[in-house]
Automatic annotation (TrEMBL):
It holds the Pfam family Tim17. PANTHER family: PEROXISOMAL MEMBRANE PROTEIN 4 (PTHR15460). This is Peroxisomal membrane protein 4. The lineage of its organism: Eukaryota, Metazoa, Ecdysozoa, Nematoda, Chromadorea. It comes from the Eukaryota. GO terms for cellular component: peroxisomal membrane. It comes from Mesorhabditis belari.
């Protein structure tokens, strides 16, 4: 048993290449497995540094508690992304095999189903990911509508007006209806716009933020 394990460890690349070659005709299954791997790696790369900064800046607790929170958020992001990519590639590949060709609706149906089951739980990580995608698809759909001539192509730059509208609405909501905003956004904007109005002397004007060591 130990000899077999040592043989596999020493020849893992040779064995792996053999298996990839043997099952090369099942590319969609292999792509799903590779998607599982990429989901874990990408989720960790994206979430860990973000959680590290946000938790240490804005959350209370001991060092151990903060690291436990960081690891929990990273695990949630990585596992959800891995499950989604794996399942999406599997369903999309299966639909292509079933219909015998690639159709645009395959992508939507596969992602719709797994979006419900993987990212449908209302937690902090899923909320952030879904909101991130929502902003991107809104811009993407507007560009697609212009490309397909559903709407006329703007003759002047519209990005400044887009920025003005976004910032006007978010500050209006924050100043007058703060409770409807996401908690992490509330914390960030409180630090920037409300706590910047509080000081008792030069020490907590320049070196510290009120009574917080920030």
């Amino acid at each position: 048993m130990i000899d077999k394990a040592l043989f596999i460890m020493q020849n893992w690349e040779l064995i792996g290449n053999y298996l990839l070659s043997k099952y090369r005709h099942h590319h969609w299954l292999l792509a799903a497995l590779k998607g599982l791997r990429n989901g874990i790696v990408y989720g960790c790369k994206v979430r860990f540094p973000h959680a590290l900064v946000m938790v240490f800046l804005f959350q209370e607790g001991t060092i151990l508690q903060k690291f436990q929170t960081i690891l929990r958020l990273t695990k949630t992001h990585a596992t959800n992304l891995a499950k989604f990519v794996f399942s999406y590639k599997l369903i999309k590949g299966g639909l292509e095999k079933f219909t015998g060709k690639v159709e645009e609706w395959h992508s939507f149906v596969a992602a719709f189903l797994m979006g419900y089951y993987v990212f449908g739980e209302n937690n902090a990580v899923n909320m952030q990911i879904n909101l991130y995608l929502l902003s991107r698809i809104a811009i993407g759909l507007a560009k697609l509508a212009a490309q397909k001539e559903v709407i006329t192509q703007p003759e002047r730059p519209i990005f400044p007006w887009f920025a003005a509208l976004v910032w006007g609405i978010v500050l209006w909501l924050f100043e007058h209806h703060k409770d409807v905003l996401q908690l992490s956004l509330q914390k960030s904007m409180t630090y920037l716009y409300h706590e910047s109005e509080i000081w008792t002397g030069i020490r907590n004007f320049l070196l510290r933020n009120s009574d917080k060591n920030i």
